[in-house]
Design goal:
The chain has one domain. The protein is mainly α and 107 residues long. Helices cover 55% and strands 0% of the residues.
Length: 107
Amino acid sequence: MSPDSGAPLLSIVSARTVWSKAARPAIAAILVIVRLCEPASEFHIAKYWYRRTALDDLLEVPAERINDDRLYRALDRLLPHKQALETHLKGAWERCSISTMSCCCMM
């Protein structure tokens, strides 16, 4: 699967990264979402930001499972795939229709 094939971001992350139960692709989604919505440190995400969102219901990851160590471990697992992820996101962004604000990069 090429990173610019239009495949969902989480599928790319899942296919290229070996995740333990503690570091599911949902953690990667949290990191991406927070960068888009309110860029913050992993400590801030774990202590404050995540608890103020509905992501625990949407991603089925309880707030008590989100901590800065888990977020850092997820970043460590994503780092080898940084170029492929950036290429995918760039391609997805270019395919987005700015006029209708419909973006396919996360779906």
